[in-house]
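Long-time lurker, first post. I've been practising inverse folding by hand and with some scripts of my own, and I keep getting stuck on stretches where the structure tokens seem ambiguous. Below is the full token string for one chain I'm working on. Before anyone asks, I'm not after the true native sequence, just a reasonable design that respects the backbone. If someone could post their per-position residues I'd love to compare against what I wrote down in my notebook.
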């Protein structure tokens, strides 16, 4: 699971702590380790990451519209004179 560890400050008690923030769940609430208050950080206000299925569909469409690489064009045989 991708994500980062963020330094947060509790709006109720004012204490700072570090919390793991996953990228695929930006709306997950944060719970203060000291007073137990749940709050949203800036990650909760971000747009969610695009679904992996949508990225796969884009790659499939791009592959379908791109001509297949068959190698360099074959040279025509020389005609005898």
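-- Answer (accepted) --
I ran through it position by position. Result:
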């Amino acid at each position: 699971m991708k994500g980062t560890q963020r330094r947060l400050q509790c709006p109720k008690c004012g204490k700072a702590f570090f919390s793991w923030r996953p990228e695929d769940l930006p709306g997950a609430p944060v719970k203060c380790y000291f007073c137990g208050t749940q709050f949203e950080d800036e990650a909760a206000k971000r747009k969610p990451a695009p679904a992996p299925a949508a990225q796969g569909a884009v790659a499939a469409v791009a592959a379908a519209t791109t001509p297949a690489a068959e190698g360099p064009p074959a040279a025509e045989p020389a005609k005898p004179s």
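A couple of notes from the structure itself: Residues 3-54 form one domain. The chain has a mean pLDDT of 73. Happy to go over any region you disagree with.
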